[in-house]
Amino acid sequence: xxxxxxxxxxxxxxxxxxxxxxxxxxxxxxxxxxxxxxxxxxxxxxxxxxxxxxxxxxxxxxxxxxxxxxxxxxxxxxxxxxxxxxxxxxxxxxxxxxxxxxxxxxxxxxxxxxxxxxxxxxxxxxxxxxxxxxxxxxxxxxxxxxxxxxxxxxxxxxxxxxxxxxxxxxxxxxxxxxxxxxxxxxxxxxxxxxxxxxxxxxxxxxxxxxxxxxxxxxxxxxxxxxxxxxxxxxxx
Length: 236
Hints:
This protein has about 240 residues and is an alpha/beta fold. The chain has a single domain, classed as Alpha-Beta Complex (Spore Coat Polysaccharide Biosynthesis Protein SpsA, Chain A), CATH 3.90.550. It is about 35% helix and about 20% strand. The chain is built from seven helices and nine strands. The protein has helices at about 35-45, 60-70, 90-100, 120-130, 170-185, 190-195, 215-235; strands at about 5-10, 50-55, 80-85, 105-110, 135-140, 145-150, 150-155, 160-170, 205. The strands form two sheets. Strands 3-2-1-4-8-5-9 form a seven-stranded mixed sheet, with helices on both faces. The radius of gyration is 18 Å and the shape is globular. The mean pLDDT is about 95.
């Protein structure tokens, strides 16, 4: 048996929400009486205990986001709001700089994914502790094709994964990956890709249930209904 490592949580939440059609940042959109950000944080707090949490938000939304996370669950540890970057990658880099604890593992989870199952979060953290890097992911359910010039070719979807969050890494790996990416001007859509660039193998944990990212209005409607259904079931 190994002793659990201390885990810090980074929540990129600097998305504008423009594709949702809202004027306010996506993280502040109401989801059944609470902000999307609050719902996501509460979800993570049920799954694990963190020594600190850093939320990365748009520059003009710091006060509003601080209000949204006021009196956070104790499992989130010290919870602070900081200004994120123009890209998700820059937000995570700033979050790493803002860490003040001696956490050994850093978990990164999108504010726009409020449905991550507790078992998924725990397994990602466990795999990261054992091997250094892990991500949640889901198998595609649709057929997939790849462009090859003017033609396309079918791919075996049984060999493919749709990458999600949470993702978790040994802290020194994630910090080094971001330092080298900044130095070499490398950009990626997720942290697992940056860490993989160091030669680190990424373990994949299949998500236990829906864990999609809220991007358009239809996603938001579905999340509201699913959370309401969970609340009804809990009251029975």
